[in-house]
Amino acid sequence: MDCKYNRVLLKISGEALSGGIGHGIDEKTIMSIAKVVKTVNDLGVQVAIVVGGGNFWRGASAKDMDRTTSDYMGMLGTIINGLALQTHLEKIGVVAVAQTSIEMKQVAEPYIRRKAVKHLETSKVVIFAGGTGNPYFSTDTTAALRAAEINADIILLAKNGVDGVYSADPKKIKDAVKYDNLTYIDVLNKGLKIMDSTATSLCMDNKIPILVFGIEDPQNIERIIHGENIGTIIKEV
Ligand code: UDP
Question: CATH number for the domain including 183?
Fold first, then answer.
């Protein structure tokens, strides 16, 4: 079967790695995600992954802490997730390389764009950990930035507990409507909280499509690669 994309950037939130608990790492969940990544990588699709860190720490949630320090703590959380994903991918025979935006040479390669692209071209899976390396940013923004840097065809924005973008929170509002297509401007104007506005703007300026989908069933990633219409696509028109 044909693949719709050649190079994708998969964004996985920290929560998605926690197996529905919201904190920590659930190895079974990570392994099920790793297996789908292997399947699509075996199909010849180049896969880069940005991992979140909300299962450990979110900078803005600190009540009485310097925000910058708190954000660095969050970035470190993303690196824990990146290492976990790397080792689970390696366990099933995928050559995976974690790169960190904050230098940590004993632990992982530093982020070097040209190296990352080379890894992708030689069928390695690249994991971008550490966010952008800057406080006051998010891993969604990291996904937009890295996708632009590596020329990804699309961002696959994996969500937990929801299978796309809705007009309102479907868990609270019964008649919330799911969108199949949206423009970046729609997302910004309607104030849809699917990713932060910095990330949305960056995607808009660089014309990077975003596909929002549910990761509870990790097989969805394979379905997307084969061109199935699931989730919500956000693009220019
Ligand atoms: N973070 C940051 N700069 C970045 C990326 C992440 O400061 O470029 C910090 C921020 O504190 C954030 C935390 O890392 O709350 C975890 O990232 P995020 O909330 O995006 O993770 P997710 O919600 O995707 O699990």
Answer: 3.40.1160.10
